[in-house]
Amino acid sequence: MDNKLINNSKSDKFILFLNKIMLGLIVLIVTVPLLYVLLGSFLQPDVLLTKGISFNPSHWTIDGYVRIFQDGTIMRGFLNSILYATGFTLVSVIFTIMAGYSLSVDGLVGKKALMLYFIITMFFNGGMVPTYLLVRELGMLNTPWAIILPGAITVWNIILARTYFRGLPKGLIEAAMIDGASDARIFLSIILPLSKPIIFVLALYSFIGQWNAYFDAMIYLEDRSLYPLQLILRDILIQNEVQPGMIGDQMARAELQRLAEMIKYSAIVIASLPLMIMYPFFQKYFEKGVMVGSLK
Predict the structure, then answer these.
(1) Residue 8 lies in a domain
(2) 69-86, pLDDT tens digit by residue?
(3) How far is the CA of 142 from the CAs of 77, 131, 240, 267, in angstroms?
(4) pLDDT at site 273
(5) Closest CA to 227 of 148, 152, 144, 145
(6) Residue 41 within a domain
(7) What's the angle, vertex CA 28, arms to CA 294 and CA 60, rounded to 5?
(8) Domain for residue 278, yes or no?
(9) Number of domains making up the chain
(10) pLDDT given for residue 95 in this prediction
(11) Is residue 187 within 8 Å of 101, Cβ to Cβ?
(12) Whole-number Å distance between alpha carbons of 166 and 168
């Protein structure tokens, strides 16, 4: 229906006007810090500390990015984060899809009991200390598995996948069963091709969640060579620990502090790049997948 044919009352127009103002403010609140960090990563340290953001091209530099790419600690952390986030996403999506589809099948024996058991774990868990002891007894401390496996499967994602599978046409499954297709054949040849929206949504949720995580690495990892990028970035931003080798061992402490701000902003931009690159490719599936369960 054409919006021009809708006669809004004065109160409706006022509410729409307020909504536009609120959305504009939200856009500014989100956009301004991002632009500030992006511009700050290209500014010379002296200009950034004394004058703030400058649009004078003579004040711009890529020295912060050069020093980050020359530093083995940050690049190793970047590669570790990609490894952890990719492995976490694969484990999470594969087992979540399998569990969600199994719980959506009408003939599954004990389905209600399983769902009740899963839902209880959403509200009650063993806590951090028992989880740490379990990871230690399994021999996963100070290994990538301590980051990838614990927490890879969440009940909320299973419920989301189950709701999506229950909304698929049952006629397709019944027709395949009449033709003699096995459960595995139905799942691989019919269900999965129709499940791209939920698969991409779960993958996006899992990747973003693991990419931004640092607490598990802080608990389970002792070897700094296994640190993810977010834990290294935390040391730079919160504890102000910029490694001397990042700016040259011969430089004075004052020089290190002078360049610290530029290195911080450059590291933030680099840490955000994978998410900004991923979202445009996932957007069309994300819009469909987030509506799963809205009507059920």
Answers:
(1) no
(2) 777 788 888 899 999 999
(3) 15, 15, 24, 24
(4) 81
(5) 144
(6) no
(7) 130
(8) yes
(9) 1
(10) 93
(11) yes
(12) 6
Q: Interhelix angle for 229-237 vs 253-289, to 10°?
A: 130
How far is Cα 262 from Cα 122, in angstroms, rounded to an integer?
42
What is the mean predicted confidence (pLDDT) over 163-172?
Answer: 84
Q: Which residue has the higher pLDDT, 294 or 237?
A: 237
- Any idea what DSSP says for residue 189? I
Which tokens go with 235? 């040391």
Q: Among 272, 264, 276, 214, which residue's Cα sits nearest to residue 240?
A: 264
Q: How far is it, in rounded angstroms, from Cα 60 to Cα 49?
A: 13
- Whether 61 and 43 have beta carbons less than 8 Å apart is answered as yes
pLDDT of residue 289: 58
For 79, the 3-state DSSP assignment is helix
Give pLDDT, residue 65. Answer: 79
131, exposed or middle or buried, with CB in 10 Å at 0-12, 13-18, 19+? middle
| pTM across the whole model | 0.77
User: 3-class SS at 43?
Assistant: strand
Tokens representing 284 are 């069309």
Q: 185 is in which domain, residue-wise?
A: 63-289
CATH number (domain holding residue 284): 1.10.3720.10
Backbone angles phi, psi at 130, to 5 degrees: -60, -35
Helix (H) or strand (E) holding 155: helix 155-166
- Give the whole-angstrom CA distance, residue 162 versus residue 116: 14
**Does residue 54 form part of some domain?**
no
Whether 237 has a pLDDT exceeding 70, the answer reads no
